[in-house]
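Mods, move this if it's the wrong board.
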Amino acid sequence: MCTRVAVIGIIVEDDSSADKLNDILHEYGRFIIGRMGIPYREKGINVISIAVDAPQDVIAALSGKVGNLPGVSAKTAYSNFVTGA
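Not the wrong board. C-alpha coordinates:
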Protein backbone atom coordinates (compact mmCIF):
# COMPACT_ATOMS: atom_id res chain seq x y z
CA MET A 1 0.00 0.00 0.00
CA CYS A 2 1.49 3.35 -1.07
CA THR A 3 0.96 6.16 1.39
CA ARG A 4 1.69 9.87 1.35
CA VAL A 5 2.24 12.38 4.10
CA ALA A 6 -0.07 15.38 3.95
CA VAL A 7 -1.42 18.22 6.06
CA ILE A 8 -5.10 19.10 6.04
CA GLY A 9 -5.86 22.68 7.08
CA ILE A 10 -9.37 23.11 8.50
CA ILE A 11 -11.26 26.29 9.34
CA VAL A 12 -14.40 25.87 11.46
CA GLU A 13 -16.77 28.84 11.32
CA ASP A 14 -19.88 27.02 12.56
CA ASP A 15 -19.48 25.38 15.98
CA SER A 16 -22.56 23.21 15.38
CA SER A 17 -20.40 21.11 13.00
CA ALA A 18 -17.81 20.33 15.70
CA ASP A 19 -19.33 17.02 16.81
CA LYS A 20 -19.63 15.71 13.24
CA LEU A 21 -16.07 16.88 12.51
CA ASN A 22 -14.75 14.99 15.53
CA ASP A 23 -16.69 11.88 14.44
CA ILE A 24 -15.05 12.02 11.00
CA LEU A 25 -11.58 12.53 12.48
CA HIS A 26 -12.17 9.60 14.84
CA GLU A 27 -13.20 7.44 11.85
CA TYR A 28 -9.84 8.19 10.17
CA GLY A 29 -7.82 8.15 13.42
CA ARG A 30 -5.51 5.33 12.35
CA PHE A 31 -4.11 7.57 9.59
CA ILE A 32 -3.65 10.70 11.74
CA ILE A 33 -0.09 11.43 12.82
CA GLY A 34 -0.98 14.51 14.86
CA ARG A 35 -3.55 17.23 15.32
CA MET A 36 -3.34 20.86 16.43
CA GLY A 37 -6.35 23.02 17.11
CA ILE A 38 -6.28 26.75 17.78
CA PRO A 39 -9.41 28.61 18.89
CA TYR A 40 -9.35 32.13 17.45
CA ARG A 41 -11.84 33.63 19.87
CA GLU A 42 -11.55 37.20 18.56
CA LYS A 43 -12.84 36.02 15.16
CA GLY A 44 -15.15 33.28 16.46
CA ILE A 45 -13.46 30.54 14.44
CA ASN A 46 -11.25 27.52 15.05
CA VAL A 47 -8.14 26.67 13.04
CA ILE A 48 -7.15 23.00 12.94
CA SER A 49 -4.25 21.25 11.21
CA ILE A 50 -4.19 17.49 10.78
CA ALA A 51 -1.02 15.64 9.74
CA VAL A 52 -1.79 12.32 8.04
CA ASP A 53 0.05 9.38 6.50
CA ALA A 54 -2.38 7.49 4.28
CA PRO A 55 -3.14 6.41 0.72
CA GLN A 56 -3.96 9.39 -1.47
CA ASP A 57 -7.59 8.32 -1.94
CA VAL A 58 -8.07 8.10 1.84
CA ILE A 59 -6.62 11.59 2.31
CA ALA A 60 -8.92 12.95 -0.41
CA ALA A 61 -11.96 11.24 1.14
CA LEU A 62 -11.17 12.63 4.59
CA SER A 63 -10.63 16.15 3.27
CA GLY A 64 -13.79 15.94 1.18
CA LYS A 65 -15.99 14.76 4.06
CA VAL A 66 -14.63 17.50 6.32
CA GLY A 67 -15.01 20.19 3.66
CA ASN A 68 -18.65 19.21 3.04
CA LEU A 69 -19.66 20.00 6.61
CA PRO A 70 -21.66 23.24 7.00
CA GLY A 71 -19.44 26.14 8.03
CA VAL A 72 -16.23 24.14 7.59
CA SER A 73 -13.57 24.49 4.90
CA ALA A 74 -10.60 22.18 4.30
CA LYS A 75 -7.53 22.29 2.05
CA THR A 76 -4.85 19.65 1.68
CA ALA A 77 -1.12 20.02 1.05
CA TYR A 78 0.61 16.81 -0.08
CA SER A 79 4.27 16.01 0.41
CA ASN A 80 6.29 14.35 -2.33
CA PHE A 81 7.25 11.63 0.15
CA VAL A 82 5.65 8.30 -0.80
CA THR A 83 6.12 5.08 1.17
CA GLY A 84 5.52 1.55 -0.02
CA ALA A 85 6.02 2.41 -3.70
